[in-house]
UniProtKB/TrEMBL annotation:
This is 3-phosphoshikimate 1-carboxyvinyltransferase. Belongs to the EPSP synthase family. Signal peptide: none annotated. The lineage of its organism: Bacteria, Bacillati, Actinomycetota, Actinomycetes, Micrococcales. Its EC number is 2.5.1.19. PROSITE patterns: EPSP_SYNTHASE_2. 3-phosphoshikimate binds at residues 29-30, 34, 173-175, 202, 318, 345. One of its GO terms (cellular component) is cytoplasm. One of its GO terms (biological process) is aromatic amino acid family biosynthetic process. Catalyzes the transfer of the enolpyruvyl moiety of phosphoenolpyruvate (PEP) to the 5-hydroxyl of shikimate-3-phosphate (S3P) to produce enolpyruvyl shikimate-3-phosphate and inorganic phosphate. Monomer. The active site is at 318 (proton acceptor).
């Protein structure tokens, strides 16, 4: 029987035959938190339907409430947001582990009528926010930090931001640009953001920002590869439904692929800016068959091992842990590249993946911007998750194919997927369980 609370040590279930599951995943973290920010700045009450309720979105709701928005999140179906008359200051925000809170909320706080202090989880205190803080300073906003460009910091809002043009290096996170664009329409002259460093990662999430802004009547453009412009103007009140989180869906699609089974992911959008959509093509290149039906995406895994290959993940870095799990189970070497910035995620994901693949007896080489993985026979092990939801998802996928994988703190998946281990157990239970090692058949 599945347990209801996640055990400290969770044995990842290994199906003894192909799975055949229909899976629903919670709403997109990235879309939920974008809609919430825009709702708090909109010109009237807004409704966000099928929102994600998880640690990251709860931190966002708490933050926006402190800044003066009224959020009714009692229903799981729809949350309503009534924007405050003005953005309120003299508050302390706990960003938890949410990159979207520590980056998206400071440009809102810059319009507050007093100081707004930010702090968060110990892992989040290591994550870069400096370029957003510098951009706000360049716009005339006083920001105090401890000189490291990380939390804790305080934004001293003065009720209004004139806006204009800022230059910043967003090579460490696309969220720096998204953050400024989401609030920029409410600055008096709008905002032009010019990127000055090496490539900005996570292009999919920048497309998502431009898309949601367009949907609420904000004119936002991307006139050249390093420039974004948002015109000043109102954010039209809206009623929007959040897509399922395709990055949370990714491990379930991988489950079909690695067991030669079938998973239908309910509610897969026909069009989306979410990076998870990239996985469809990648799984097909690895040998799976993906079919989009009216009620969802179906992935049929091959009856042979997956094909190894090279993957440039720069636009879709969030998928790296699941792609790494697929790579260690493939029939040949894979190179994952373009994701140097993952060293500044919930943990240094490249180091964490390399450590856990090594613990499984795998062969992996950490490069400056990715991983080189050569499949070898793997053995069971107790895997660490480093307070990183996507490391828990990596471990679950590997555990579906390798006997004896035990996962420390699988509950860390709650950042974006409360009850992940239960959903996983249900999906695996659609197949026969493999017999424990050494038990005769
Ligand atoms: O804007 C967003 O919602 C996100 C952008 C990406 O951040 P980075 O560009 O820092 O990787 C992604 O990894 C993160 O999970 C969500
Ligand atoms: C990097 C991630 O999260 P965050 O929004 O906290 O940056 C992630 O979800 O993979």
């Amino acid at each position: 029987m599945p347990t209801t609370t996640a055990p400290d040590l969770w044995t990842a279930p290994r199906p003894g035959s192909p799975v055949d599951a229909v899976v629903e995943v919670p709403g997109s973290k990235s879309l939920t938190n974008r809609w919430l920010v825009l709702a708090a700045l909109a010109d009237g009450p807004c409704t966000v339907r099928r929102p994600l309720r998880s640690r990251d979105s709860e931190r966002m709701v708490d933050a926006l409430r402190l800044l003066g928005a009224q959020v009714d999140d009692t229903s799981d179906d729809a949350w309503t947001v009534v924007p405050g008359v003005a953005v309120r200051g003299d508050v302390r925000i706990d960003a938890g582990q949410a990159g979207t809170v520590m980056r998206f909320v400071p440009p809102v706080a810059a319009m507050a009528d007093g100081p707004v202090a930010f702090d968060g989880h110990e892992t989040a205190r290591l994550r870069p926010v400096g370029p957003v803080l510098e951009a706000l300073r360049a716009l005339g906003v006083r920001v105090e930090d401890e000189g490291r460009g990380t939390m804790p910091f305080t934004v001293h809002g003065r009720g209004r931001v004139a806006g204009g043009e800022v230059a910043l290096d967003a090579s460490a996170s696309s969220q720096f640009v998204s953050a400024l664009l989401l609030a920029g329409a409410r600055y008096e002259h709008g905002l032009t953001v010019r990127h000055t460093g090496s490539a900005v990662p996570s292009a999919a999430h920048l497309d998502m920002t431009l898309q949601v802004l367009a949907e609420v009547g904000v004119r936002a453009t991307h006139p050249d590869p390093v420039t974004w412009r948002v015109e000043p103007g109102p954010i039209t009140a809206f009623d929007r439904t959040v897509e399922p989180d395709l990055s949370s869906a990714a491990p379930f699609l991988a489950l079909a692929a690695v067991t030669g089974g079938r998973v239908r992911l309910r509610g897969w959008p026909r069009e989306t800016t979410q990076p998870g959509a990239w996985l469809v093509g990648a799984l097909e290149r690895m040998g799976a068959t993906c079919t989009l039906h009216d009620d969802g995406l179906e992935v049929q895994g091959p009856r042979r091992p997956l094909r190894g290959g090279d993957h440039d993940l720069s636009d879709v870095g969030e998928l790296t842990p699941v792609v790494a799990a697929l790579a260690v189970l493939a029939d040949g070497p894979s190179r994952l590249a373009g994701v140097a910035h993952l060293r500044g995620h919930e943990t240094d994901r490249l180091a964490a993946l390399a450590a856990e693949i090594t613990r499984l007896g795998g062969s992996v080489h950490e490069t400056a911007d990715g991983l080189e993985i050569t499949p070898t026979p793997l053995r069971g092990a107790q895997l660490r998750t480093y307070h990183d939801h996507r490391m828990a998802m990596f471990a679950a996928v590997v555990g579906a194919a390798v006997p004896g994988v035990v996962v420390q703190d699988v509950a860390t998946a709650d950042k974006t997927f409360p009850g992940f281990h239960l959903a996983w157990e249900r999906a695996v239970a659609t197949a026969d369980r493999a017999r424990p090692e050494g038990v005769p058949g």
